[in-house]
Amino acid sequence: MSDVSDVRRVEIEYCTQCRWLPRAAWLAQELLTTFEAELTELALRPGTGGVFVVRVNDEVVWDRREQGFPEPTAVKRAVRDLVAPGKPLGHSDTPAP
User: Fold this and answer.
1) What value, to the nearest 5°, has the Cα angle with vertex 78 and ends 25 and 48?
2) What is the pTM of this model?
């Protein structure tokens, strides 16, 4: 069993009323592909009221209400900074013009 300090959990809370499951599932796939060795868990959490929030170990790294819908590269950078600092993300590290 792993130590609690080794847990690197991502949660994507999405609005079921808005039918945002496909968007949440796609983002989950992107994160699992990028961080397949770094994450210990990824959860999709149904919510309501227009919610679309990404958390790493309960820390909000993206909130649609404050930042709009995320581009996968922006979320990958935010997740990387918490679960795998220094991990190169290839083209995702290149800032947009």
Assistant:
1) 45
2) 0.87
